[in-house]
TrEMBL record:
<keyword id="KW-0813">Transport</keyword>
<feature type="binding site" description="axial binding residue">
    <location>
        <position position="130"/>
    </location>
    <ligand>
        <name>heme c 2</name>
    </ligand>
</feature>
<dbReference type="GO" id="GO:0046872">
    <property type="term" value="F:metal ion binding"/>
</dbReference>
<keyword id="KW-0479">Metal-binding</keyword>
<protein>
    <recommendedName>
        <fullName>Periplasmic nitrate reductase, electron transfer subunit</fullName>
    </recommendedName>
</protein>
<feature type="signal peptide">
    <location>
        <begin position="1"/>
        <end position="22"/>
    </location>
</feature>
<feature type="binding site" description="axial binding residue">
    <location>
        <position position="90"/>
    </location>
    <ligand>
        <name>heme c 1</name>
    </ligand>
</feature>
<feature type="binding site" description="covalent">
    <location>
        <position position="86"/>
    </location>
    <ligand>
        <name>heme c 1</name>
    </ligand>
</feature>
<feature type="binding site" description="covalent">
    <location>
        <position position="129"/>
    </location>
    <ligand>
        <name>heme c 2</name>
    </ligand>
</feature>
<comment type="function">
    <text>Electron transfer subunit of the periplasmic nitrate reductase complex NapAB. Receives electrons from the membrane-anchored tetraheme c-type NapC protein and transfers these to NapA subunit, thus allowing electron flow between membrane and periplasm. Essential for periplasmic nitrate reduction with nitrate as the terminal electron acceptor.</text>
</comment>
<dbReference type="GO" id="GO:0042597">
    <property type="term" value="C:periplasmic space"/>
</dbReference>
<feature type="binding site" description="axial binding residue">
    <location>
        <position position="107"/>
    </location>
    <ligand>
        <name>heme c 2</name>
    </ligand>
</feature>
<keyword id="KW-0732">Signal</keyword>
<feature type="binding site" description="covalent">
    <location>
        <position position="89"/>
    </location>
    <ligand>
        <name>heme c 1</name>
    </ligand>
</feature>
<keyword id="KW-0249">Electron transport</keyword>
<dbReference type="GO" id="GO:0009061">
    <property type="term" value="P:anaerobic respiration"/>
</dbReference>
<dbReference type="InterPro" id="IPR036280">
    <property type="entry name" value="Multihaem_cyt_sf"/>
</dbReference>
Length: 151
């Protein structure tokens, strides 16, 4: 029974795809989004690589408990199951020699608060939270301000 529901779902989504693909031109109705006014079935050309701001001092935080912004280039830094380039400088073991800031104790805590002997899996993919910066105009105007206590 479940299988039949699954199959019919699959079939109808395939049919739907067929209809969309058969159409050469899918209009976005003149509505522009963050990807511009590129039509729905056309691939937007990729944005050029951004130049990352590099500076010697850390960025000021905008709110308490903010993951600090990355003040250096990270291009070609491998992050995979076998290697984590960030930890080659930022782990407690390597930080002294590399001169990088140590990852904080929170990076060793598992979800249930247990403190692990090595970086916690939920803190392994650094770029989930830490990002380098680029001098760019905001995509959308906003009036965000740093919290009072950090101004
Ligand atoms: C070659 C060593 C090295 C590697 C690799 C490296 N960093 Fe760094 N990082 C540093 C140093 C040194 C600093 C101190 C600030 C400076 O001088 O740029 C720093 C600063 C930082 C900061 C700011 C800390 C603060 O207190 O504000 C963050 C966040 C950071 N790095 C994240 C990363 C992430 C994420 C990666 C991997 C994508 C990474 N770093 C890879 C050396 C490194
Ligand atoms: C889930 C989000 C998250 C991930 C993933 C994460 N961090 Fe962080 N990081 C934070 C937050 C939040 C802070 C600031 C509060 C704190 O220290 O916990 C921080 C703080 C830091 C600091 C500054 C420590 C200090 O004492 O000032 C460094 C350096 C850092 N992280 C590096 C890393 C590196 C390298 C990785 C990957 C191995 C990583 N982080 C993964 C959220 C994250």
């Amino acid at each position: 029974m479940k299988m039949r529901v699954l199959l019919s779902g699959l079939l109808s989504s395939l049919l739907l795809c067929g209809v969309v693909v058969a159409n050469d031109y899918v209009s976005n109705g003149g509505v522009a989004s963050l990807r511009g006014d590129t039509e729905l079935n056309t691939q937007n050309s990729a944005a050029g690589l951004k130049s990352v701001v590099e500076q010697d001092k850390p960025y000021d935080a905008d709110y308490v408990f903010q993951p600090p912004l990355i003040p250096h280039q990270i291009r070609h830094y491998e992050m995979s199951l076998n290697a984590n380039k960030c930890l080659s400088c930022h782990s407690w073991k390597n930080a002294r020699e590399s001169g990088a800031t140590k990852i904080s104790v929170t990076h060793y805590e598992a979800r249930d608060g247990q403190v692990l002997a090595d970086v916690s899996p939920r803190r392994y993919f650094c770029l989930q939270c830490h990002v380098p910066q680029n001098e760019a105009a905001p995509l959308i105007e906003n009036e965000y301000e740093r919290v009072e206590s950090l101004r």
